[in-house]
């Protein structure tokens, strides 16, 4: 059984079919890339899986259970975590506090314990802080633990988002354009860091990215969406030489980036 199975998924916004009969299987440990032109439906697919938008048709099975239409918080508790295209950190909170928010998803002590500041609450707070530091270390930004998120360099903020997402201890991680707005050095750092994260933790990752070098280097398989439908699926070599993909997307990206 696959970890995630998407069957004939359709998402409509008014008269617009953002996704049309999309099928996808993700196995445990996969590193899957999701590419395609602007408006192809990539983020909509993430939004449907994470419960942010309601599909009009099809099924989304995670660990054999249909999660289609479930609330985002319930889906997150099943082990599905994500980052967003636009950074969504709490800028006036410290880096460590942003990660603690990822850890404290379910009440860990009663309101009574919290109001009275009982040892159970104090111990849990200390454990959460220590765990947050471990995640900051995991993504290589421990030195920024006391810095305010909004004051961090862009590439570090992106890593902090990933630290917060993995703090929920997910079984699958969806990354929506983690290299967006990064310069070449930051992009190279990101490739190395994601490769190490995947190797060290074995976590299943699905990655949307327009920086094709990131996708080609990291992903074992790639799904190409175009106009809400699957245009192609294959390994990086197959995708780069697929004439339909070159015509619909890669050719245009090469022109834009002079690759
Ligand atoms: N909440 C929404 N309401 C109405 N239309 C939407 C909504 N979200 C997405 N769309 C539309 O659905 C289509 C797919 O959008 P989506 O954001 O999924 O594309 P994408 O492949 O992620 O694009 P990009 O690479 O630019 O991020 C687009 O035409 C978009 O305008």
Relative helix content: 40-55%
Helix/strand-derived category reads alpha/beta
Overall pLDDT metric = 90
Question: How would you write the strand order of the largest sheet?
Answer: 6-7-8-3-9-10
Which term fits the overall shape?
A: globular
What is the end-to-end distance? 39 Å
Main sheet record: 6 strands, mixed
Give the cofactors and ligands. Answer: adenosine-5'-triphosphate
- Beta-strand content: 15-25%
Overall strand count: 10
Instruction: Please trace the helix and strand order, writing H or E for each element.
Output: EEEHEEHEHHHHEHEHEEHH
Please state the CA-atom Rg, rounded to the nearest Å. Answer: 19 Å
Low-confidence stretches: none
- How many helices does DSSP assign? 10
InterPro entries: AAA+_ATPase (IPR003593), ABC_AA/LPS_Transport (IPR051120), ABC_transporter-like_ATP-bd (IPR003439), BCA_ABC_TP_C (IPR032823), P-loop_NTPase (IPR027417)
GO molecular function: ATP binding; ATP hydrolysis activity
Domain ABC transporter: 4-252
Pfam families: ABC_tran, BCA_ABC_TP_C
Please outline the helices and strands:
Elements: E1 4-13, E2 16-26, E3 31-35, H1 42-49, E4 57-62, E5 65-66, H2 72-77, E6 80-82, H3 95-103, H4 111-116, H5 119-138, H6 154-166, E7 172-176, H7 184-201, E8 204-208, H8 212-218, E9 221-226, E10 229-234, H9 236-240, H10 243-257
Parallel strand pairs: 3-8, 3-9, 6-7, 7-8
Antiparallel strand pairs: 1-2, 1-4, 4-5, 9-10
Domain ABC transporter: 4-252
GO molecular function, one term: ATP hydrolysis activity
Protein name: ABC transporter ATP-binding protein
